[in-house]
Amino acid sequence: MKLKFGTGGLRAVMGNDETQMNVPAIQQATLGVAAYIKTFQKDAPKAAIAYDTRNHSEEFARETARVFAAQGVRVFIYPQPMPTPMLSFAVRKLKCDIGVCITASHNPREYNGYKVYGADGCQITKQAADMIQKEIIKADMSCMGEAEDFEKCVQKDLISFIGAEVRNAFLDEILKYRTKEVLTGDLKVVYTPLNGTGLIPMTEMFDRIGAGRTYVVEEQKYPDGDFPTCPYPNPEDPEAMKSGIALCEKMSADILLATDPDSDRLGVAAKNGDHYEQFSGNQLGILMLDYLLKGNEKNFNKQKNPVVIKTIVTTELVEKIAKNYGAEVINTLTGFKYIGEQIGILEKNEELPRFLFGVEESCGYLIGPYVRDKDAIGAAMLVCEMADHYKARGWTLWDALSDIYETFGQYESSQETRIYEESAAIEEMNLLRRMLKEDTKASYDNSRVVKYEDYQEGVYGLPKSNVLKMWLQNGSVVVVRPSGTEPKIKIYREKTVKKAVKA
Q: pLDDT tens string for the chain (503 positions)?
């Protein structure tokens, strides 16, 4: 296997090559993870496994379970495709030492992946990933011929299926963070799982909160790894939302909810005048935060010193809104695992009730500490309650967003991805870093750099990371970082386009 194991585990196009996702790659990775577990848990180690609806996901998940069982690791596996946040939940609920989710998240249909979670329910750290990579290199593949098949391992109770009680417990935890006891605004909701894992838990959540008038996009309703109507099943992508918006228009719905294949990301669209318009991850994040803090039936803004956790590339409006209501903001590196890590620190310090909201600009949200990853199911519940709240006032979600802009000012955010050959992305980052250090008149986007931060040198106590943040003379703030999974550089830009007009 020539795939490199990183903090996101493995992610690649499926195929038979050594650089692609296939059964041998799954076997070798699992042997490495099993060896890693035994370095700290020699007595009856346990693993939880989930998988999404992609082609070969179930096969890869069963092979992962089989290899774990052969290595003396007790396995708990969901019997059908389930969301990534439910894997994070199961790891903690079942007191497992490790978790594996077979998913490529929102990547195109030809991809699959292998994400690893620690006992805390967070994606593993770089240190853990490096240790696993070393074990993968040492893995003896010859032992695979002696491993028993999946069904025999089930019969011998080496592998157990995770029952409905865990899914129910997951939903029970989400409902603890309801903001409304009853939906009052006669809400109409369209939902699409984009042929992914969200259908079962999302419709169960709708039933529990009394969202009676819900409609599911038929052609995107059931699991299908070919994703026939959206080859790029990402709710951030307008193309993936077209079928949902068409159903919204037909049913005169108030909102559209969409989840990616592993249901950790949430996309939302709502009526804006005479058409439906999709929110960016930043826009939805500030809507949710403002609603939580300004007051609702459960008065979350009355909590003592509430904490909001965001990534450094998420809009600065989060800080403005949070500080206006007296909430503390913690910034983390990009990746929800860092948000989960901060929740763990709050728990260790016996301050877990302070956690209010976690947000990242790529449509990742968490409304309570019940998992250590982003969760589209809980976020969707909050959006339903929020939309219901504003509808009762005669507002749409776009009206609510306009009110936020009037109060706090409006930022325009954009993101660009540049694709490179092999290691050229890293070389480009190094060139930019040298320019900033050596040229006192350095410019970016045709504007002079007036200030910059190099996160590789350590900033605000955060772990060192290959990230550059620049403040430009034209008023823009730009963050540049390489992708952790692909040869890409991601560029995040934000600029104030409208000042606050409300007192």
A: 788 898 889 999 999 999 999 999 999 999 999 999 999 998 999 999 999 999 999 999 999 999 999 999 999 999 999 999 999 999 999 999 999 999 999 999 999 999 999 999 999 988 999 999 999 999 988 887 777 899 999 999 999 999 999 999 999 999 999 999 889 878 999 999 999 999 999 999 999 999 979 999 999 999 999 999 998 999 999 999 999 999 999 999 999 999 999 999 999 999 999 999 999 999 999 999 999 998 655 555 456 789 999 999 999 999 999 999 999 999 999 999 999 999 999 999 999 999 999 999 999 999 999 999 999 999 999 999 999 999 999 999 999 999 999 999 999 999 999 999 878 999 999 999 999 999 989 999 999 999 999 999 988 888 889 999 999 999 999 999 998 667 899 999 999 898 888 75
Please name every residue paired with 298 in a beta bridge, in sequence order, or none if there are none: none
What b/e readout covers 96-134, taking b as 16+ CB neighbours within 10 angstroms? Answer: bbbbbbbbbbbbebbbbbbbbbbbbbbbbeeebbebbbe
459 belongs to a structural domain: yes
Catalytic choice (57, 88, 105, 465): 105
Do residues 14 and 55 make contact, with C-beta atoms less than 8 angstroms apart? yes
The reply to whether 324 falls in a domain is yes
- Domain-ending residue, one of 253, 278, 303: 278
| Helices first, then strands: H and E counts in the chain | 14, 21
If one counts the domains in the chain, the total is: 4
CA angle 466, 470, 473 (to 5 degrees): 165
Transcribe 112-128 into DSSP letters.
Answer: EEEEEEETTSSBPPHHH
CATH of the domain at 331: 3.40.120.10
- Do 360 and 421 fall into the same domain? no
Tell me, yes or no, if 105 is annotated catalytic.
yes
**What is the extent of the structural domain holding 360?**
279-374
Tokens of 126: 């770089």
Q: What share of the chain is helix, strand, coil (3-state, %, to 5)?
A: 40, 25, 35
Three-state DSSP class for 267? strand
The answer to the question of residue 301 being in a domain is: yes
